Amino acid sequence: MPPVQRDPTRTVPLPLREQAAVRDRWLTQRLLDLLPGLMDGAGIDLWIVAGREYNEDPVLATLLPAAWLSARRRTVLLLHRSDDGVTPVAVSRYPVGQFVPAATEESAGATTEWDVVRRFVDQARPARIGVDVSADFALADGLSHSEHGQLVEALGHHADRLVPAERLVVGWLETRLPEEIAALHVLNRLAHDVIAEGFATAVVPGSTTAIDLAWWLRQRLHDLGVEPWFQPSVTLQRAGVPLVEQSGALLPAVAYDAVVLPGDLVHCDIGLTSLGLHTDSQRNAYVLRPGERTAPDGLGELLDAGNRMQDLTTTELLPGRTGNEVLAAARSAAAAERIDADVYSHPVGVHGHGAGPAIGRWDEQGDLPGAGEYAVHTDTVFALELAVRRSVPEWGGQCVRMGLEQGIALTADGVEYLDRRQTELALIPAG
């Protein structure tokens, strides 16, 4: 009996079998509708993605069927561009989902996978063969040294047609289908809801530590079936404990295992995975002091400044601009409005820190070589990550840092927030 089809934008997480059906449907659509244009743009007519079990090219997992959890011995995928589209061919001991099995000619005797690859290239006669090697993007540098050597040896005189597939790989990894963006709306909503639940139920001021809350968040994600892709982070700021300089940035100085106290500003950073997609979210809360009903105005104004910085950054996030150009324009706009801010946004999707244009780093606010020089494209998703600082009168003029991170999608219609951004501080009762 076939699995029941559900709309992934309505129920998360789906049962694993239904997740697999959704992911395989997306893969088919991406191979048919997305890949031909990406290969044409990169000038590649054969893309070879190879990996061995437990040492897979990061791209390989995005091409394998959902029921495959590793490469299984050696798996070589051949994606051949022709007038009819892209023909996906697999060189493997096992059937590989949507890929056509390559002819092995077993009747002629045992052959290696590389012999099969050579025969395919002999017949296809591609002009440019893309392989996953890159100095700038780790996710586009997945062809191992030994695999590269064996491929070159197998191809013989065809090896002079090998070219880096960096542009193709980054385009494949960063581009999202409309259905994937719709699912990311729901995944981001779940991430926000889990943080809100943690603030509301898992913090007992005077007893709970920052690390207690971090482990509660990780356990909650695990119990929901949406595994975190990094250890959740919880940091505290409080009056009387000023920021400290680290790697050129001003960061909170309260100990990571300190007990949460009334009057603290609590910051959470979590990311979850489901349907082969990732989220990356940050939220802030204020712990009320006895008798308080709201956070100090200075902290609310700091969050307002953070929201304004989000607006200034998304205004500058224009297709065709490089990550460095977006960073410079956003920082210039912030300076004009006297906002003290750092911007360090990044693509997010099939990987948490995804391939694509880097827009600054938390410890580097100048031009970045490589990833910073990559251009912004539509149909991509970013973690809009930044921080603002200002003195808070209610804390004796102490400088406070507000870190914000929010999923956004850039489409032909502009920027849309995935679920909702934080515009008010969450409030944690004093106890």
TrEMBL record:
Signal peptide positions (record):
none
Which SUPFAM superfamilies does this entry report, sorted A to Z? Creatinase/aminopeptidase
User: What's the superkingdom here?
Assistant: Bacteria
Where is the chain membrane-spanning? none
Annotated InterPro entries: Creatinase/aminopeptidase-like (IPR036005), Pept_M24 (IPR000994)
Instruction: Enumerate the spans annotated as Peptidase M24 domain.
Output: 190-397
> Know the name of this protein?
M24 family metallopeptidase
> What lineage, starting at the top, does this entry show?
Bacteria, Bacillati, Actinomycetota, Actinomycetes, Geodermatophilales
